[in-house]
Amino acid sequence: MRGAALAALALPLLAGCIATKQDIRDLQLGMATQQARQDSMVAVLIARTEAMLDSLSDQNVRLRGDVANRLVSIDRQLVQIQELSGQNQAQLGELRRQVDVAAEEARRASAAAQRADANDREEDEAADPQELFDAALAALRRGSVATARGGFEEFLRAAPEHRLAPDAQYNIGQSYEQGRDVPAAITAYERVLSEYATSGRAPAALLRIGRLELGRGNRTQARTRLNQVVQRFPRSPEAAEARTELQRLGTR
After folding, report:
1. Which residues, at least 6 apart from 41, have a Cβ–Cβ distance to it below 8 Å?
2. Fewest CB atoms within 10 Å of the CB: 142, 165, 202, 218?
3. Distance between CA atoms of 55 and 59, rounded to whole angstroms?
């Protein structure tokens, strides 16, 4: 392309057959002007590309959706400069490499930002554990045992280490008990003992197991459980109730 430009500048000279010193000076001036224009465009492109790469490498910069458009614009400028000049090919090639690297960084950063935004939305949409527990407890109190049980189970999945986790598991036992599913209720209460043995709900769960066993005629199992309440939690309110139950059975 540069040869074509030179030929265009030299055409008037050839037409006149004789080149004066002024003609030569005009030709040299035209060549210098063209080269200066090309060098200026390359310098501007370098500055803009480096600024873009710096912004991409800065971890505190929040990438926006127009990054891809900026890369496309820079790439078009590279093409324009290459069409204007056969010079600086190595430099232009390096710029193209930088643009490719920047584009890949932008794609990865944009994907990461999208994942982070999605996670933020999921966290925002997730129910607050306390609200979930309260809703399940309200359902239990109005007799909607299946709804309540589902709420407490979801609570335990979402917040297994929450301070109300023992209460949630105990209330699952309550929901089965209200639904007259004694085996499932006992299993749920047993889980309170196995997973939350030091919680305040443990003696209550053990007392409920003893009473349920007594209710279905398993007096031996009932005595065992009631005695465990007294032995393991002697100062608890449930221990006093267990002693009363044992007195009714005629043995401690």
Report:
1. 77, 80, 81, 84
2. 142
3. 8
Residue 162 tokens, joined: 């929450």
pTM exceeds 0.85 for this model: no
Q: How far apart are CA 200 and CA 198, in angstroms?
A: 7
> From the first residue on, what is the mean pLDDT of each consecutive set of 10 residues in the chain (252 residues)?
47 49 66 67 61 50 50 60 58 69 70 68 67 96 95 96 97 96 97 96 97 95 96 95 92 50
What sign has the CA pseudo-torsion 212, 216, 221, 224? positive
- Reduced 3-state DSSP string for 41-58: HHHHHHHHHHHHHHHHHC
Look at residues 64, 73, 65 and name the one whose alpha carbon lies nearest to residue 45: 73
What tokens were used for 68? 């891809």
